[in-house]
Give the backbone structure.
Amino acid sequence: MPTETEKVNKSAAVRKYLKANRKSMPKDVSAAMKEQGIDVSPSMVSVIKFNMMKKRAAKRNEMAVVVARTAKNLARRANPAASTNGAAGGTKAEAIRTVAKSLPKPVRPRDVRSELAKQGIEASTTFIGKVLRSAGMKRKRRRKAAAGTAAPAVAASLSIDDLVAAKKLVGQVGSIEKVKVALAALARLG
């Protein structure tokens, strides 16, 4: 039993006891510590035990990651020509480019995906689209102009006289919307 002048690290004593008796319950640990002259509450023992378990689990996870990486590296060293991504003798991107060149234009990601599936290679259509775009095989689409920002192509062929006549028509009918409706009806009539 420690004397009053000696200071005892309660946490260290509990950890030492728990390492020797992993399955003991907090009340049992607290009672055992009291027998040694160390006053420790069961809740403190619970916290210490939980933290120990958390550290052990983290170490196990780290070891699992290390083991997985080691196994992957060993397999890669043993057969460097084999790829782990499903494409024999190369990368998925190379397989995508090869298949895309063999297909008729325009090349669509879903067509490339079906051809790759026949070869036993899995790739998402998103990934295929990115590879095709970076290889210059897929055109970039233009965005539509916001309404009212670009003048229609017909406006370029109109003369000033046509615009003046259109303005008179709007004045007679009442509003541009009414003119649009009338023109749409006229177009339907043929």
User: Anything to note?
Assistant: The chain has three domains: 10-78, 92-134, 158-189. The mean pLDDT is 80.
